[in-house]
Amino acid sequence: MFKKLVAAMLALLFLLASAGCMGSKVEPTTAPAEAATKAPEAPQAQTPESAAPEAAPEAAATPEAKLPDLDASTPITLHYATWDDYDMAELLASKFTEKYPNITVVVDRPGGTDTYMSALLTMASDGQLPDVYQFLELATPINNGWFYDFSEYWNNDPDTDLYLESLKESVSIDGLRAMRVVGEYLPEVAYLDRGVFNKLNVPMPDYNWTYDDMVQLVKDMTRPDQNIFGYNYMGGAGPVTFGPITQNDALSEFGWDGENYHLAGAWADSVNLMAQLQQNGNQALQGTDAWAAASGDANMWPGNSGLVAMQLDAWWTYNNIYTKSEAIEKGIDMVPYVIPRGNGTATNRKPAFLDYSGISSGTDFPREAYELLKWMSFSKEGWLVRIEGFKTLTDEAGNKIYDLPNCFPLINDESLWAEYRKLYPADEPAFDAFFELCREPVPLGSQGILGFAQWLGEVYQQGDFNGYTGVEAAVFAGALNANDATSELEEKGRQYYLDMLNVFYSVYGKP
Amino acid sequence: MKKRRLSKRTLRNWLYAYMFLAPWIIGVLVLVVYPLINSFNFSLNTVRMMPKGMLLMPVGFKNYHDLFVVDTTFLQALIGFAVRTVPEVAIITTFSLVISIMLNQKIKARGFFRSIFFLPVIIATGPVMNELVSQGAATVPIVNAQAIAEAVSFLPVWVSDPIVDMFSSLILILWNSGVQILIFLAALQKVSPALYEAAKIDGGSGWECFWKITMPSIRPMILLNAIYTVIWLATGGQNEIIDLIYDNMFASSRGYGYASAQAWTYSVAILLMLGLFWRLLRVPPDKSDKIERKKRERLRKRARK
What we know:
The structure holds 2 protein chains of 2 kinds. Chain A is α/β, with parallel strands linked by helices. Chain A has 22 helices and 11 strands. Chain A has 2 domains: 36-184 and 355-392, D-Maltodextrin-Binding Protein, domain 2; 186-351 and 427-503, D-Maltodextrin-Binding Protein, domain 2 (3-Layer(aba) Sandwich), CATH 3.40.190.10. In chain A, strand 1 (76-81), helix 3 (86-99) and strand 2 form a beta-alpha-beta unit. The longest helix of chain A is centred in the last third of the chain and has 27 residues, at 482-508. Chain A starts with a helix and ends with a helix. Chain B contains 14 helices and 2 strands, in the order αββααααααααααααα. Chain B has a single domain, classed as MetI-like (MetI-like fold). A two-stranded antiparallel ribbon of chain B has the order 1-2.
């Protein structure tokens, strides 16, 4: 009897377990295709087919422009997904609910940078894509129809007038429909070591310096007799990244103008310059004998050695390294300079690390989701909460989370920037200049150009150039003049862009 | 013909049997058969993870066409894997055999040495293995990779690169031998000492004993180890094709459909390699065994009549 009972229970247990697994299986549906192309269920929302060119997101809101009212009575739950900074997200979410009591915001934490996008994909496969979400690359949201077309809200929202001018272009992916905004902005930075400048008795350059000023400075500050190198750079922050942007007034990397790359001129000059600076010993190159002889440790990171006049890097390096005692004790006194502007260019565009956010095309509350998107990204009200958070948020042990802010405002509002400035040391004038000159950021290629990541990986970095893998390797080895590769690279880059644009149209429809 | 009725007892026994088998059957159906069918279905579609669920758009064999014609990275990786695997299997199997013979001798601290060779199977897996490789612990400093690269430079790059890679990760290959050593050891211990004694009495040398007694006795285990090694190498954490498939599944613009096509192509390639090893290493059926079996069948038939 006992045996029978055990056997029956075992069988039942497994039946139940398998039934449970089957119950939570992915719901295959054909509806999302329509959701992506016709997105909104809300009456105000606009279909791509009806999105007229004159309704372009770049268009400034008219004085009469007014957003549809929010639903203030129905209890609504919105999900917001981010890959980092959860404490700040929770604070913003709670303040949003304080303002709109009928809306509850749940902060989803799918994972860190490595797993974030795959976790979002898994959530989407189960029909659980959050209403508002950050994303780390363009291809996944495009391919899977995640973007909601919020042109109608964007075009009728007076607050969008203040959105940083250089970022307005990137709100749209096809130049017509508003589908994303920047969630977090961190600039690329040229850190100049005041300690080294003082040691060599050389004056610091002007804050609004140019590309040529920078090149000259790198050469002048290289002093082999004193083991000082002119510069070092983090991958993705070197002259080859910013040169073609600043020198061409471009919208993104490699002189991108919205439809084509422009590699002849600025890009070729930048690659050749980098090769030349490396060959001439102006660059502190980790792992080389020259660096080992100068620093005593070939593996030491040059950026934190006190032997490099300029480190091209990201904003987070300032918070993470240069304000810490280890750097200060070495006599390192890094002053943040904006990336130098192009020589005689019309704009002051500079590359930045921009994490974008979008609204899910499957949301049931697009209007409310748009309000949350704004709150979490660029709205002034949201930013005032954020500034308060930078000052007050503490971890479980009671320690302050932010010594300095970890991202920059996204609107041209002087009072907001003044509040933001107060978070930094008052006696450092470099910050005043930096916050004045950093307001024309443009995205790097992975967020700014369709098909960029594939082109970069398969052609630029992995293509065969005179027997070398990757064009930069060939130029650095002296096997190729960068100018000879420009037309081939431009042509292939254009093709990757068009292929991805076709994918975009196949998912979202062609207006 | 009289219909045989199953007794209550037999029925109950069947019921019990299937009840106890149920977990396995359900497990296989849910965790193996269903995913297999699903992934093959994915491979014939463009799969989109739309915000409200999954959307399948049939594309026929386009994903398979693309991975052979458009994206040659996968094909190159596949060829590289095949070229690397064949010699690696030979090295691992030979090394395991030699070590297992040594560990089967009556030596001092035999248990300790056996543990040492099995230790990497337990310790050096997953992240630990990756960390060791990244620190250069998988290479033998004495092996001059540059000299090997020059020696094989006359070969096409897709052949020479895997060979150079293999030499530069020689230690890694040897670390992968723990289970194979164990299997050989078990086989060696099954060989009756009486055979060796008889051979020695007849004046057989150690060398002759190895070829005439040991090898024929453990030959099926060579095939088993070769198959085990191919599977191990094909699914291990160091396998770049698995990473490639994973990347295509999540991070690139290609998606689940394309990644599934890659996974199926990879599976077929592995099956082909297993077939090759089976063909090379299988033990051919003994002719006298065949005759004997036929005789027995004939007798059984006659007895029934």
